[in-house]
Structures are given as C-alpha cells and as structure tokens.
Amino acid sequence: xxxxxxxxxxxxxxxxxxxxxxxxxxxxxxxxxxxxxxxxxxxxxxxxxxxxxxxxxxxxxxxxxxxxxxxxxxxxxxxxxxxxxxxxxxxxxxxxxxxxxxxxxxxxxxxxxxxxxxxxxxxxxxxxxxxxxxxxxxxxxxxxxxxxxxxxxxxxxxxxxxxxxxxxxxxxxxxxxxxxxxxxxxxxxxxxxxxxxxxxxxxx
Length: 204
Fold this sequence. Notes:
Elements: E1 2-5, E2 15-17, E3 22-25, E4 27-30, E5 36-38, E6 42-45, E7 48-51, E8 56-58, E9 62-65, E10 68-71, E11 76-78, E12 87-90, E13 93-96, E14 104-106, E15 118-122, E16 125-127, E17 134-137, E18 145-149, E19 168-170, H1 177-183, H2 186-189
Parallel strand pairs: 1-4, 2-5, 3-6, 4-7, 5-8, 6-9, 7-10, 8-11, 9-12, 10-13, 12-15, 13-16, 14-17, 15-18, 18-19
C-alpha cells in the first residue's frame, strides 16, 4: 500500500532495483521514461505502473502477475542477456494513454543491440496497442523472444493479432502447452527462486 512517485520528466525512474530476489507487491509506481528499471531477479504482484515510454527497462529476469501498466509510448525496452530470462507477464493489463503504441521495441542503441531480449505475455488485457504489437526491432531477430498467448481486449474478446510483427510469435494452447506452463512458473523464469508469496498459475 505504498506509492512511489517522481515528478521529474525525461528519463526518470520511479523505482530502480539493482539487487536480487526483490518482491514488490501492492505498490503504485509513477515515473516518466524508464519508470521501472529492474536489473536483478524481481517478482511484482498487483502493482500499478505509469510511465511515458520505455516504461519498463532492465536486464531482468522479472515476473509480473496481476499488474496494471500504463504508458504513453512503448511499454518496454528489454535488455536481458542470454544468461537469464527477461520479463514475463501473467494476467496483466497494458493500457496505452497517448494513442496506439507497442508492447516492446528493440532499436539499435549507439551501435549496440540486445539480441536475446525476451518479453512474454500470458492472458494479457490490451488497450490501445498498435496492430503490429511489437517493434521496431533492429538487427538479428533469430533469438528475440517476444511471445504472446491469449491476449484479449478490455471487453474480453480475443485481440486481432494478424498484423503482429514477424519477429514476435503467438503461442498455441495445444502445440505450445509445455512452453506456456513453464512461463507460468515464476521459479523457472527467476532462475530457480520462488518468492514465498506466489504460486504457479494455471491460466484463466
């Protein structure tokens, strides 16, 4: 029941985490660009996060459950290395507040890129997301994991994903059942750590 705000503009974190095994629960975070930066293993539950673009930045791994995220620009710029997972969202809401925007982007950054970036949405509610969903994505996309399963709109109807960026992938309930089950397990995402307050989700 804590609100963490910043009144600064530009790149202004509301919360920056550099430690390991952090739990953030029932918290509101208000920032600008890079509103939440998480560089170690972290578990988020029932948080409300508001930012202006690249609202979630970090090297992960991070697991989000039942969170509400608002952004005026791209929701994420993920920078996780090959050694660990990125960001996984289970039953979270993404709400664009400044016109249609994308879930995550992966542009070249001063000659550098993040070819193993990972963002996974499971049973998400999407409001105001651009039809492409993801992008722009520069460089080699063969290892990028931008995955989506059963996204729905604010009325509970399946989202039209026909125009999604070709580097992203839709997970199939039957064909990808094992993959979906692994991503629903926070311990699998967080390198073996299971926060005491969480359980494995079984979906809708």
